[in-house]
Every structure is written in C-alpha cells, then in structure tokens.
Amino acid sequence: MSQTNQSYDENQIQVLEGLEAVRKRPGMYIGSTGPKGLHHLVYEIVDNSIDEALAGFCSEIRVDILEGDVISVSDNGRGIPVGIHPKEGISAATVVFTILHAGGKFGGGGYKVSGGLHGVGASVVNALSQWLELTVKDGEHVYFQRFERGAYSEPLKIIGDTTETGTSIKFKADGEIFEDTHYDYEVLLKRLREQAFLNAGIKIVFSDKRPESEEEKSETLHYEGGIRHFVEHIHKVKGLEALNSKVIYFSGTQGDSFAEVAMQYNDSYNEVILSFANNIHTMDGGSHETGFKNSLTKVINEYGKKFGLLKDGDKLLGDDVREGLTAIVSVKLTECEFEGQTKGRLGNPEVKGFMEKMVSEKLMSFLEENPAEAKAIFEKATAAQRAREAAKKARETARRKSAMESASLPGKLADCSEHDVEKTEIYIVEGDSAGGSAKEGRDRKYQAILPLWGKMLNVEKARIDKVYGNEKLQPVVTALGTSIGEDFDISKLRYGKVIIMADADVDGSHIRTLLLTFFFRFMRPLITNGNIYIAQPPLFKVYRGKQVRYAFSDEERDRYIEELKDGKDVNVDVQRYKGLGEMDPDQLWETTMDPERRTMIRVDMEDAVKADETFTILMGDKVAPRREFIETNAKYVQNLDI
Questions:
Q1: Second CATH level (architecture) for the domain 409-535+603-608
Q2: 319 is annotated as an active-site residue
Q3: For tag attachment on the chain, is the N or C end more exposed, with fewer CB atoms within 10 Å?
Q4: 555, 323, 562, 587: which is closest to 438 by C-alpha?
C-alpha cells in the first residue's frame, strides 16, 4: 500500500470542529478513564505513524515507556506539516494537536488509507495529557512545541537543523483525568505486535525503560511475512499443532482496495477468525468476514464434489469447514464504513463481493495445486460433520428425555420462589457440604442453589456431541433453561445472575475454570450479557470476643488484627477457612451471599480473543504453553493454599 510522494502540506489539514469538552467528557472520545482508555492514548499516536507507513513514507516506529510512565513515540515518516495553516493562521502541526477533527485524513490528499480516529487522536491525547512535547523534522529544520493540558504558551519554533524527517511525541497522561497512569507493558506489546503483523515489513521497536521495572524490556517487532506470521504466532502461543504444513495466503486488489487472507488449520475443535479493516480490529466482523466465510464454505464443498469426496446431496456446513481454523482477514480501504455503537463491524457492502471472488478463485487454486493439504483439510471438515450429526442425535435424545420428564428441574436444585429473572440468582456451589450451608443460609425468595459434585468434563478437549447429556453438566444446563450451542436461547434464562461459588483453593480454582470454559464455549452470550459472576468467600475470620471481621486477603487480615488489638497487648484469634463447608449457614450468608455485604466479580468479555487464547492454553492438551502461562502469571496470584 504505497503511493508516490505527492503534496502533503498545510493545505491538506482541514479543520472540521474546535477542541471542546474532551477533558470534561473523556469517555466520549477514548471509551473510559480506566486502563483501557489510558492505553488507548498510546494507540492513537502510534496509529498516526502506522498511517504514514500505509502511505509508504515510514519504515520504523519507536515506542518507549519512560520514567514516570511518560510515553515516547517517534517515526521516520514525512513529519507533520509545519507551515502556517491558511484558515487558522498558526502552524498546521499546532492545529493538529489543538483542534478536534483536524488532520490530513479527510480530503483524500494526505492519505489514501488510514485507521485511528481520523484526526481526532492527536488533539484528544494532547487534551488528556498533563503535558505533551512535539518534535518535527522536515528535512531542513527541527521544530519543537510544548503543550500543557492541551494549551500552549509558545508557538512552534525551530530548535535546530537536520537532514532527517519524522515526528516525535512525548506525553504524560493526566492524573486528574485517569484513575491510574501506570502502563501495562504486555497490553501495549500485544497491540503493537498486532500492528506489526498487519503491516508486513514495518519495524516497531518497543521498550520499557522505567527504572522501577526489574529489567529493561525491549522487543523488535518486524514481520516480513505479515499476517502469515500472525497465524503462526497464534498457534505457537496456544500450543496448537498445525494440520496443513504451511499457512495458506492470498491477496487481491479492486480499485484502491486491498484484501489479504492468511489461514491454517490446527488440531483443536475451535475456530479463531480475526478480521481487520485499515488495521482496526472488527470484533463483530462485517462484510469482509462474511464474504470470507461464505466463500470458504462454498469452495470446500465444490472441491469435494469435483473430486468425488462428497456424496450426492451431501453438504458441509460453515461450522464444519471452520472447525480448527485460524484465519486473519485484513482489508485496506479508502473509506471504511463502520457499524454499531463500538464501531466493531465493517459495513462496506462492496467488500463482501470482492472478498468472495478473491477467496473463491485463489483458495480453489491452492487446493487443486496442493492435493495432500486439501485432503487433510477436507478430512478435518468431514470429521466435524460427523460430530455435528452425532451432536444432533444427542441433542434430540436430550430433548426427548426432557419432554418425558416434563422438563423437570435437577433433583439437587433448591429453587427460589420469585419468577422475575431480573431479581433472581443461582449459586452453582462446589460440593454437597457447602451446598447444604448455602441452602440453609440463602434468601429463599430470590436465591437458588445448585450443588455440584465430582469432576466436571473439560469441554476444551471434547466436541459438542460429548457435552450433550453429560451427567455433570446437564444439571447446569437444565437449571439455567437456555440449552447450549446452536440451541442456546438467552430469553429462556431462569436467573438474572449465575454465580459460581467455589472454595478459595486450587481445587476451587479448577472448578471455576472448568465452568467458565463451558460457559465460554457453549453459552457465551451469558458472559457477553454480563450474567456470570464469581463469588468471593473470605479467607479469614478475625475475631476478639464478639467483635468479628472477615478478611479477603493477608493484608486485610493483618489490618484487622491490629484494629482489634486497638493498641493493647491482647490475643486476636484468626480462623483460616479451608473451604465453604467450614462456614455455618449464617456465616456463609453474611460473608458471601448477602447482597448488601458480599463481594462478587462479574465476568466480562473485554477481550474475547485473549480469553479464547487463555482457555486453550489452560485447558488444552499441551503442557509447555500451560507451564509458561503459569510461571508468567504466578506473581499475580494471592492467597491460594498450595
């Protein structure tokens, strides 16, 4: 995606709107003032450098986290125009950083393709920074300007001479705006690596130079193979074995539009399709992803018929041909039309036909030229088809059984009397002992209790036909009322809150992980809709006489001990709860089930891709990735009796 060096100066900077209310309502521009919004500031500045790369004028970007969580982003692009803007009467670079909706991406002259917030990014980052310093090299001079909370006291000035070109931006996020201004290295690394994959050949050097870090971390992200390497990286991280020996890659152009696909099958039962438009992750898919899926199903079926691998009248469905598939679908367009509140879906209708035509021609050519690879892919799809048919029979058996039993609820379920879903909740409790305490201690009007016992099925290692009718999972499915998989219907959910309550130990963590894996794979809307919660039982009972405190961490325990001592040399007793069953009904209600006093964690889907990756690592067959994950994340785990 390169173009000849055409005029990019102050005349390409168009002003649409003044910079107003960004500091007053930051969430409107960056989503939140929490960690997500903080990291978004970095993405916006980097995206401007990426746009220079897309235009063909930038080959290297450096991103540094400096002391005090200051961010530095520099590139070797053309440099932001520094001439006097014809309308505003100040430097065009100053305009870009002080006026909302000012940039070179509106008129089509400065950039053919761009991501980011289309000119909003630089000014919003400036407005939400305690300070920002801009340095521009235009091949002759070095220009500098400093801003404080979006304002400047001195205009852009020359501070030296140079033969280089590029832009360098340093900024410190404003502590008056953000809850916490500490950057997470791994979060930024993931996003920058993604950008390097999507823009083959570009080099991004990322370093953490904060003195408080144990050691300076640095990564050079440079992938000549682009999205091919993206697929290989996903498989490596998840510990998945590739089914076909090489990543299938093809690309095409239509006018000014460019599309590319990289795909490879693996030994899992789950599909991962990541789609992007102008480097923006389209989490909800869109016309490019739909076109790819439609054409993939069509091509695999046509190949099967052409070579006699499918019987007459037989047909593979989309789910069959996508089982175990990892694919990256990326398009670069002059104008992206995004849909939905989060702009996570591409709407350009012409892209669907473009993608279908490209995949149809190029995938069929690949399959015909690589018969061994094609056979492996086809056998994977037909195995998935057989499993789907087995699942259909199991589902029908389960339905008949349910009908014969008049849809009776599980015998161990202690239901609540209220029928308003908005008011009801079900506790899925580990063990009969804890279940007994929960049943006695609950509010019978609103709270239902379902005890679980024995080892649950790890659904990460099982196809859906093994899930239907499973004696450990069926009580959960029946109690919730929604069914699973393609039959899932959230309108039939019987409880507004589904609360996992397990012991605060290793076994309890395993139960939670197994249940979350099941919900993620077969009842995912419960997570996206915010229905799943994790109860937080206390770890300690701290008491002196009739004075009782419940502590959820070692630090809280120690604080309560000192509080109850009240400066005196007296004994304070501490009881460590090994499990929920050790609490009597009153204690369980008071600490874990009383809506007025309990602490719960709601499970959300902020990053479904990361969640999918984590479940595969933790619950899949491969030991090495799981060991690496545990070693990396062990420092974040507290209060587990191991």
A1: 3-Layer(aba) Sandwich (3.40)
A2: no
A3: C
A4: 587
Concerning whether 507 is annotated as a catalytic residue, the answer is yes
The one catalytic residue in 47, 232, 289, 430 is: 430
148 flagged as catalytic: no
Angle, to 10 degrees, between the axis of helix 185-198 and the axis of helix 227-238?
Answer: 140
Contact 126, 97 (CB under 8 A): yes
The pLDDT, as a whole number, for residue 638 is: 45
| 515 conformational bin, left if phi > 0, alpha if psi -120 to 50, beta if neither | alpha
Check if 420 is active-site: no
Q: Which of 505, 607, 612, 641 is labelled catalytic?
A: 505
* pLDDT for the residue numbered 14: 56
- pLDDT for 6-15, tens place per residue? 666 777 665 5
Task: Say which amino acid occupies 73.
Answer: V
Q: Of 9, 302, 350, 507, which is the active-site residue?
A: 507
Amino acid found at 495: Y
The 3-class SS string of 299-310 reads HHHHHHHHCCCC
* Sequence ranges of the domains in the chain: 10-222, 227-388, 409-535+603-608
Bridge partners, residue 481, by sequence = none
How far is it, in rounded angstroms, from Cα 125 to Cα 119?
Answer: 11
If one compares 561 and 506, the residue with the highest pLDDT of the two is 561
> Is the domain covering 227-388 a CATH 3.30.230.10 domain?
yes
Q: Tell me: pLDDT of 245 over 90.
A: no
